[in-house]
Amino acid sequence: MDDNKFLSLIKNSICSNWELPALSDYKAEPFYYKDFARKIAEIHLMFDAMGVKKGDKVALCGRNSASWAISFFATVSYGAVIVTILHDFDGHSIQNIVNHSDSKVLFVNDQVWAKVNPADMPNVETIFTMDDDFAVEKASSAKLIETREDMSRIFKEKYPNGFTPKDVVFHDEKADELALINYTSGTTSSPKGVMIPFRSLWSNTKVAIDLFPYINPGDGMVCILPMAHMYGLAFEILFAISMGCHIHFLSKVPSPQVILEMLSKVNPPIVLSVPLIMEKIIQTKVFPELKKQPAKTLLHIPFIRKRIYAKVTKKLLPLFGNKLIEVAVGGAALNKEVGNFLSEIKFPYTVGYGMTECGPLISYASSKVYKPESCGKPVDRMICKVDSSNPEKEIGELIVKGANVMLGYYKNPELTESVLDKDGWLKTGDLVTMDKDEFVFIKGRSKTMVLGPSGQNIYPEEIEDLLNNSQLISEVLVIEEAGKLIALVYPDKDYIEREGIKRPDLEKLLAEDIKFVNKKLPRFSQISNCRIQDQEFEKTPKRSIKRFLYQKH
């Protein structure tokens, strides 16, 4: 078996862990690896019946679930191209992506099925609903209907001696063969579909296998992140299956409290998180206690501070289960105060960095060697360089090359050429510095940088990072208007309600917090005004604020 191939890693794990649990929906019985393999084989029989060819596009849109994972692996292991779509998109956007991707088959859950119209997706020949054990909602093949309805008999005839690991047959991939198209947006007339080859899936999975040698077959994994986003897919699904882990799916978008409850039940060795979850846990459960007396005063005494922080770590670790080795944060930058605090209390966390176009990993470092405020160093098979004459001190755009990099954007050669040159170097659009040990420090996005009154570079993310330390603020966005910086604030409604803060008082308190933050900033990057938002900001799949929607104002 060729371990330099992604599907070989997956097949080997399924066959080696045949009798272990693989996938569990919330409060449901698990699929064992043998059940997982059988469902994949059944879908292969249906693909055969409907005439799916290698390279055909198969769209997948639904909530995180065991059926989602089965649909994904059944498609890529058949040699078809999986098109992953975030289920939170509106019906028009989902249909737009399905049509743009030239998908012939569509897997949906009930929620998505209720908001799409098959008539608006004329090229789709077959639609399966995953919540009903892959019921056929639309079919152009009578043989498919017959196969689906008589699957037990057909399967028994094909495997008269029972289905065994020897019967698992997967596609023989080529390194640069297209495996997946991941759509990061669906609202434009020409959606951006990132083409990920098999080499990228293999390389990302192999990086994780090498970075997390303490993961063993049977270990639990909690699926927190959206599977339609590359960060969640690569490490909570592809890596977890390659290691024979037992993946637990949550029923809906989870709150930090629901996540902590699940972690205490599953006890995963590693937890993958976006910064928002870690920040809320620390800012709501830890910081308020440390601001009370006598802890607030005692923290100024070095040797007592050390003891207090040791106790904090002892209490914090069990929140993530009793087997925790590392919390890996990615998807966006971690709040500086939270990150420095976690480093000081010696909590085993680390921050990685990537982008969809790299499937996603670019840089990472284990918690044992991680440098605070960095996002790790280039992973195996990836090269990073900074477009700057002095990368250690002078900010420049990060440019990357390697096995993880995409093939380009689907049906969009102009956009591809604007970011990916003929030698394979990809412009990330992120502004960074890189130290002598190759640790990468993100300073902002080139598209979000604001030019100050005298040509100074202002990075809104750094100001937002300071403002986010306020207990009054749930989310904040700093934008430019008429040469001035404005803070758009979505308040922490739970905290405000608990403290009984009225709107006029909230405005005064926020003004005080902004005044405090401004004292830490140079004059050219100080906040001029604050506006309260009544609704949460719109988010991308990785829970980053869609900044461009608000900068227009």
State the main characteristics.
27 strands, 553 residues, single chain, Rossmann fold, eight-stranded mixed sheet, 35% helix, alpha/beta, 20 helices, GMP Synthetase, Chain A, domain 3, four-stranded mixed sheet
Largest sheet: 8 strands, mixed
CATH class of the domain at 12-246: Alpha Beta
* Global mean pLDDT: 92
The portion of residues forming beta strands comes to: 15-25%
Helix content: 25-40%
Number of strands: 27
Number of helices: 20
What's the CATH topology name of the domain at 12-246? Rossmann fold
Based on secondary structure, the structural category is: alpha/beta
Strand ordering within the main sheet: 7-6-5-3-4-8-9-20
Shape assignment: globular
CA gyration radius, whole angstroms: 24 Å
Instruction: Assign the CATH superfamily of the domain at 12-246.
Output: ANL, N-terminal domain
The name of the CATH architecture of the domain at 12-246 is: 3-Layer(aba) Sandwich
What are the segments in which pLDDT stays under 50 over at least 5 consecutive residues?
none
First-to-last CA distance? 56 Å
